[in-house]
Amino acid sequence: MDYRNIAIIAHVDHGKTTLVDAMLKQSGTFSDREIIEERVMDSNDLEKERGITIYAKNTSINLGEHKINIIDTPGHADFGSEVERVLRMVDSVLLLVDAYEGPMPQTKFVLRKSLALGLKPIVVINKIDKPSARPDEVVNMVFDLFSELKATDAQLDFKYIYTNAKAGVALANLKDVPKDLQPLFDLILATVPPAPQDMDKPMRMQPVNLAYDTFVGRMAMGRIHEGTLTEGMPVTVIKLDGSRERHKITKLFTTHGLRRTDVERAFAGDVVHITGIPNINVGETVAQDAEADALPAITIDPPTLTMNMYANSSPFVGKEGTLVTSRQIRERLLRELETNVGLQVEFPEDAEYVQISGRGEMHLSVLIETMRREGYELQVSQPQAIIRERDGQKEEPYESLTIDVPDACAGTVIEVLGRRKGEMTHMASTHGTTRLEYSIPTRGLLGYRMAFITATKGEGTLSHVFSHYGPYKGEIVRRQTGSMISGFTGKTLAFSLANLQERGTLFVGPSTDVYEGMVVGASAKESMVVNPIKGKHLTNMRSSGSDFAINLTPHVDMTLERALEYIEEDEFVEVTPKSVRIRKRYLTEVDRKRHGVKKA
Question: How far is CA 558 from CA 39, 284, 382, 518, 534, in A?
């Protein structure tokens, strides 16, 4: 049997996981008795809820005598570290591109990584069933992108195919009659080179992904580059610092469909999971020969955002969660480091917080959301871009930003991005939609998504990916509103909220528990202390107009992502299993006066 190893890469929501579903179903991988869910590869609860892939996962299908190992990679830029690693163990990639949207920032990011490794992608133009699809035009856009990224002549001569992943069909030519995915299977076998199978050399493999299993411990997933790997084999682990350790492979697994199968032997070219090495890390080399050379190291782009994580210290601490201490939070983050390679965690001495750094707001928010579902209570500070110094000059991360908005909204978006230090690199209008491309500091995008949704009435799309480090752009104003801060503890009342909603936007509804120092809304002007629990003064006298009905505007439900975008430097997001609250660091009257917070 020969092995063909491919990764499916694309921008978020272009249909990677749906295509993998169809490939699994049509290859005969599942039996007739198995019930197959939609987006079956999205096994994590958060992935199913958000409809995106967060963690890279591998599967395989058999086509005759050929085993196709398929890696489903994340499409969101914040999880790019997952993509960077898996590209090192494949021989080709399927580059999925939406038949209407064309190449997007993440498409460019993952394609650049693929081309740099010398891979020759197969381009898949997906969602050709869209009424607005323009597949031939998108093929030309992809070719231009290849040229822009300085692809070689061989890479520029890429093969392409059209698909409707939802219907499970592929077409070599748009005039063909849609039937199934067989044209795609034929193209993979004809284009993807078989993995080299040098069985005479001693075994070497390199982990690109990590997992943890309650029964077998830490697992490493990677491709066998040379030789034969057997269960019980003594191996040498060559660490990233050059040191060597002796271990023994206790369990060996390969994948068929979604099933992990325990095997005694695996061969060069195959993708396997191994256990028995408790401190194995991504990029290290597992070798049969104690004197073997290390495989080339895997490099991952550094984090661009950082925030501080604290144990919850609000008056409501312990009401909803069971894991509330600093020690428990630190232990959980240490476990996260075992598998989340793109995350960095620092434990400053004598500090009450832990500093966590990641690739973007979603990368960090997924970690926080996972922890709250496990029963943790914590609070986090405002995300900050990581500023560095080079040759005596301050540098900050920049993002490649792509926006599609209705023509009528373009002017507003351009004005705001200009204030946020964005520089337009491209602008084009087609069919009533304007596409804007920007180079903008990461700081300029923090807190912008909510304002963007409001400005475009929910009709715009925004996507971005880390581009480079560039000159520091100076001060950027993120928020032009203040906060309404509760000066009392109790339950909110509709009478009080009706008066407060005239001053700005509320984050809480009636009968909500609040405490002194909790942010209950956004003020249109400066920050102010308010009383959201004040009731109507009752008397035994009746007067005209005293019994008018109270009309409350629906409040803004503060999700975790919205809260992280909203907060300023002097605010925390309090996260518990059932609630997301915003609170001021300064609670006392002296602190309020010092920081210019007025009373309503």
Answer: 28, 42, 15, 13, 23
